C-alpha cells in the first residue's frame, strides 16, 4: 500500500514541477526554477521507490495520469487554461483508464 501512496504523491509533485517549469521562463526566474528542481527530484525519487513493487507500465501510467490530471485541473482552476465539458470528459477518461490499469494489476 505504501508504494501506491508514494506513487500518487510523486504524481502530484509532477504537477508541481510541470507548473514551476512553465513559470520559470526557460530557467530564467530563480524561485520557479528552484521549485522545479526540488519537486522534480521528489517526483522522480517517489516514482523510483514505487517501481520497486509496482509493475513499470502500470506505475508509469498512473504517475503520468496523476500528474497530467492535476496539472490540467490546476491550470483550469487558476484560469490559465479554459474549462469545458469536453475537456472535463477527457480528464474523466484518463482517470477511468488509470483505475482500469490498477484493477487489472496483480
Summarize the structure.
With 106 residues, the chain is mainly alpha-helical. The chain has helices at 2-23, 30-50, 56-77, 85-103. Helices cover 79% and strands 0% of the residues.
What is the fold's blueprint, element by element?
Blueprint: H1 2-23, H2 30-50, H3 56-77, H4 85-103
Order of helices and strands: HHHH
What would you call the structural class? mainly alpha
The dominant shape is: flat
Helix content: over 70%
Number of helices: 4
Largest sheet: none
Mean of the pLDDT scores?
95
How many domain modules?
Answer: 1
Distance between the termini: 13 Å
Estimated radius of gyration: 15 Å
* Portion in beta strands: under 5%
Which stretches of 5+ consecutive residues score pLDDT under 50?
none
How many β strands by DSSP?
0
Can you characterise this structure?
The chain has four helices and no strands. It has 106 residues and is mainly α. The protein has one domain. α1 runs antiparallel to α2 and α1 crosses α3. The chain starts with a helix and ends with a helix.
List keywords for this structure.
single chain, 106 residues, mainly alpha, 79% helix, flat
